Structure formats: structure tokens, C-alpha cells
Amino acid sequence: MGDFNTIGNVFNNLNGFTIGYIIVQAVIFFGLIVRYKKSKKIEKQALQNVQEAIENNPNEQWTNYTLNELFEQQNSKSKFVQQWKRYYERVSKNDEDEKIKVERYLGVEALTYAVGERGILDVGGGVHTSIGVLGTFIGLIIGLSDLNTLDAEQLRSGIDTLMSGMTTAFV
């Protein structure tokens, strides 16, 4: 029971800036999650439509041209569809003797980066770290603002303020 009281005391002692700081972090985090889930829904629907079309037409001669027609009917926001379009544009410009590696466009690494929203996930960690460093400096500024080194008693109370300001950085 004592641990819960300690946690409660920490939250009771937070100032308005710290609460706002935590809210901004939460909004960014949940915003990234919502965007990721929307993206996954679009990808799943596009791939399901393509798979169903191929399975329902087993006798179809699936050339790059017919596959492109199929992909053109899908949601253009789909990263998988965008990767296909990059591949198809490159194949359309192909010389007869040139060999194009499909892996560069539709391989595991290319699809993991494009469809897996790696760019967003990489940025998310950097944003949170940057906000954390900013919070550290703001917390130190809050703590040092009341520090008076001329009087021992005021210095002691100033150190208490400094320590409470540092809680902003490590929440």
C-alpha cells in the first residue's frame, strides 16, 4: 500500500508544465499508433483484394500489364501499391537486355521498410528522446531559477526547488 501512496504523491506534486509535457508525449505516442493501425488496415485490404482477384482467376495469364491493371484499382495510399507502381514504372522503361531485380522493389527488406512504416517508427523514437532532453533542460532551468548562493538557508531551499524541477526531466 505504501508504494501506491508514493506514486500518488509524485503525481500530486507535478506542476502544470510537467502535466502538459506528459500529455504531449502521450498524444504523439498514441498518434503514431493510430497512424500505424490505419496504414495496416489499408495494406491488408489492398493485399486481400489482389489475392482474391488472382485466386478467382486461376487461368488468367498474369503479366506485369495485367497485374498493374489490378493494382491500379486498389487504394493509392497503400504502400504496397506504391511499391508496385515504382517497380512497374521501372519495368516499363526497361531495355531488352537489362535485368531488373524485383527484390529491390518487392523484396522482404523493401516491403518491410515501405509497408512496415519504418520511417515513422524511427522518427517516433527520436521525437520522444528530443522532447526528453528538452524537458531535462527546462527542468534544470526551473530548478536553478530560485537558487540563491549568498545565504545558506536560501541555498538549501533552492536545492529543494532544483530537485523538484529535476523531476520534470525524469518523469
Question: Nutshell version of this structure?
Answer:
This protein is 78% helix and 0% strand. It is an all-alpha fold.
Mean pLDDT equals: 76
What pattern of helices and strands is seen along the backbone? HHHHHHHH
In angstroms, what is the radius of gyration? Answer: 27 Å
Describe the largest sheet.
none
Distance between the termini: 21 Å
Low-confidence stretches: none
Number of extended strands? 0
Percent in helix: over 70%
How would you characterize this protein structure?
The chain has helices at residues 2-12, 16-56, 64-72, 79-92, 103-106, 108-115, 118-145, 152-169. It has 171 residues and is mainly alpha-helical. It has 8 helices and no strands. Helix 2 (16-56) runs antiparallel to helix 7. Helix content is 78%, strand content 0%. The model has no long low-confidence stretch (mean pLDDT 76). It is elongated and about 90 Å long.
